[in-house]
Amino acid sequence: MNNPMLRPRIDKVTVHIGVGExxxxxxxxxxxxxxxxxxxxxxxxxxxxxxGFGIKKREPIGCKTTLRGKTAEEFLKTCLKIxxxxxxxxxxxxxxxxxxxxxxxxxxxGMKYDPNIGIFGMDVIVAVKRPGYRxxxxxxxxxxxxxxxxxxxxxxxxxIREEFKVEVI
Length: 169
What we know:
alpha+beta; five-stranded antiparallel β-sheet
């Protein structure tokens, strides 16, 4: 692409572990997440009460962390390598963002299985954007992003194939 303003880039990578309960398992998940991502995890809370699962509204049931910049790209490369550099077309949304899951935290380099902790899976959500998207979020002179500048799934897939050498099925 000749125009640098049309070149997609990784905005942020959000990593989420859903435990379903608070307490010891949630503390273990936070410790594992901070070890894998080298970021500070934030607790996520239940939106509503589910008595069948023993979940109360506003109870912490998971944790997440957001990575940006070079840290996000390096982490994404590691995650894609664990996922065998494959993504499905239906993992991309209408705005070019994509998400995938990792079944076991022990797949990451340097992580070992501990029977006291168990195994945690995680969701990796990647937000892709073009430069100039700030105009729809800024405080002064806020405006819409023109249709010709919006990111499509095809643009995002081409960027991921080229930048990260990922096979999209």
